[in-house]
Amino acid sequence: MKTKRDFPSLKNDLILRAVKGEEVERIPVWVMRQAGRYLPEYLEVRKQNDFFKICRTPELACKVTLQPIDRFAGLLDASIIFCDILVIPQAMGLEVQMVEGKGPHFPHPIRVVEDLKRLKDTVDVDKELSYVYEAITLTRIKLDGRCPLFGFVGAPWTLFAYMIEGGGSKTLSKAKTWLYTYPKESHRLLQKTTDVIVDFILGQIRAGAQMIQVFDSWGGELTPKMFRTFSVPYLTQIASRVKAAMVEEGLQVPLFIFAKGAHASLDILSSIGYDVVSLDCTIDPKQARIDTKWRVTLQGNADPNLLYAPADVIKKEVREMLNAFGANNYIANLGHGMMPGHSPDALKVFLEAIRDHSSSMGNK
Ligand code: CP3
Fold this sequence. Notes:
Layout: H1 14-19, H2 40-48, H3 51-56, H4 58-71, E1 79-80, H5 87-91, E2 97-99, E3 103-105, H6 125-128, H7 130-143, E4 149-154, H8 156-165, H9 173-181, H10 183-207, E5 211-216, H11 224-230, H12 232-249, E6 255-259, H13 266-269, E7 276-278, H14 285-292, E8 297-302, H15 311-325, E9 330-334, H16 344-359
Parallel strand pairs: 1-4, 4-5, 5-6, 6-7, 7-8, 8-9
Antiparallel strand pairs: 2-3
The structure holds coproporphyrinogen III.
Coproporphyrinogen III binds next to strand 3.
């Protein structure tokens, strides 16, 4: 296992400084799904390789992770390891396929309580997901300190929903039926998933991840009360267990939480041990500052569809977004991921607008 000393030293630590609330000469930026199908060079790799094969092959995962860093040289302040949140259900014993034009698909999802028996009793996370650790270590070396590297995981509720729905869903009716009908069994599955998540986060950190983002992409689908009952306790547990282990091992890696759509819970999300709360585009920046009381750094939150607009509109919206968040304790990002129809040039306009406007904001 690599230790901190073995990696090339970091030449751009803007994002780590923003997390700590330190002064930054410009606002750091990265975007969710910055590696992906909007990049012709990604599609080229994808033509010859199944999605999960890329995730499982450290050289390919590393190559694809670095594609946006190379293309937008000097404009991205973080990289994020190429992988998927659904590698956890796979490690727990469920089959997951990535179906062309449809997204993730579980041929045998968890439907009835009896199906829980199909999950492994104990998961050797470090063995099952060692390919992610190898990809992280390799990418840290290849990044050569250009910017820090994110590891990530799906949140317990979002993974629970995928395991029961068997894929994407408009209503999440099956997953919610479980919460209402089998609360005890639901908590058992959420806890089991949480235990795997904690091990997986720590493994990614030991392998070289310099920041961790937890994606609760379906957090906003729950009522505030259900979110407090079935998501928040596990998100809290993840942060406290990971932080306790980091203290013991002398590691210091900031934790980011992205609970898409969870507007009603921003106050809670800013007080359960995460350093950064990431916002989707339906949240007003100023309201988010009020709700989170400057306890955390905020990240976000341009509408991904803004990248379909003319360049002058992108620039104007970027200026307004940066002014609304302010230059401190802030990381610019989209409110959700890049989409296959986006043009890389539009992303470049977005990134340059952030660099140009934030350099002139003056937060000193
Ligand atoms: O660049 C990065 O941000 C890192 C890579 C990354 C991927 N998935 C690659 C990917 C990350 C961080 C994820 C997380 C992920 N995966 C989430 C959380 C973020 C979010 O979007 O809310 C979720 C919900 C998933 C599950 C998932 N994986 C879905 C719903 C899909 C289909 C999306 C679609 O548009 O079809 C995927 C597939 C996926 N994950 C792709 C990529 C690049 C596209 C698949 C392909 O190449 O065919």
